Amino acid sequence: MASLSQLPAGSGSSNSLLSVIETAKEPLTSVPQCYVRLQQEPTPSELSDDNKGTFRSIPTIDMTKLVKGETSDFANQLEKLHSACKDLGIFQLVNHGVNPMLLENLEHEIEVFFKLPLEEKMKYAIRSGDVEGYGNIAKTKDQKLDWGDRNTLESYFMELDQLAMRLLGFMVKALKTDMREIEELFDTDGMQSVRMTYYPPCPQPELVVGLSPHSDVCGITILNQLNGVDGLQIKKDGAWMPVNFQKDAFVVNVGDIFEMLSNGVYKSIEHRAMVNSEKERVSVAMFFSPKFEAEIGPLRSLITPENPPLFQGVGMEKYVNDFFSRLRLDGKSYLEQMKI
Ligand SMILES: O=C(O)CCC(=O)C(=O)O
Ligand SMILES: [Fe+2]
């Protein structure tokens, strides 16, 4: 795994992580001890039939049906979006409207970047006190990135930002509340960050984890599995379930902050990434969060005497900083602390 933006410091910052690509270049037949996980939770194939549950695949939401507006298709799709966010916290988004040429260029440029020699990549390494670079990129909407091909990356960020705002709009509609509070939190100065991850093939994939179990500390995440290789898994009823999705679809998941904003109606989902022995995998996750100055907590418009707040309010900056000061990714434990 290389590159991270939403990881607490000790989850493998800088050198050990950045060098996994270099490690994987060696003709290895076994995995170095530092990557071996001794205790893995069961995968579906290891569970008894009684415990497999009913999960088959994540729901598919069709953006064109949402954008079309007030038709019966729209109402059905909005209901589907509501159930997906409430019951699972994740769905695949098809017909999202992002320019296919842009997606192709992005895939090409990111692959080229990850394949540069380490010395070249380290020229872009994140420096202490900075938030962007190899290893980590985070930006507010008005900050510029200065590595990679600015045109492609910036266009991607802009298109995804618009998509995220539209999706947030539909989610708010599905929650039957109004958009004003969300606009205040996310619009203009909202925070956008990205994690691009290159997972090299691994000689013993069953012994390692590409990205440790976690939920995302953001409003929503839009994940692009760039080269179409699967590896994402979600935790459902105590077991890890693989998520397969169409090559051109994005996976959207509810983050911890939206769980708080929705007062627990929508759920963030615990997930992880696994690797395989043959194919490298490249993913780009974009995280959309409220602005740093915002106070986050259950939306006022959702709170009534019958529906009291389930989470404490907290400043966004404090929330994010406290998360980054934790030593490792640990499922949904950080969000649990915020419960009243
Ligand atoms: O690579 C993936 O499929 C998952 C990435 C992810 O969960 C993240 O970057 O937060
Ligand atoms: Fe994630």
UniProtKB/TrEMBL annotation:
This is Fe2OG dioxygenase domain-containing protein. GO terms for molecular function: L-ascorbic acid binding; metal ion binding; oxidoreductase activity. The keyword S-adenosyl-L-methionine does not apply. Keywords: Iron, Metal-binding, Oxidoreductase, Vitamin C. InterPro entries: DIOX_N, IPNS-like_FE2OG_OXY, IPNS-like_sf, Oxoglu/Fe-dep_dioxygenase_dom, Plant_2OG-oxidoreductases. Belongs to the iron/ascorbate-dependent oxidoreductase family. The keyword Metal-binding applies. PROSITE patterns: FE2OG_OXY. Transmembrane segments: none annotated. It comes from the Eukaryota. Residues 187-290 form the Fe2OG dioxygenase domain.
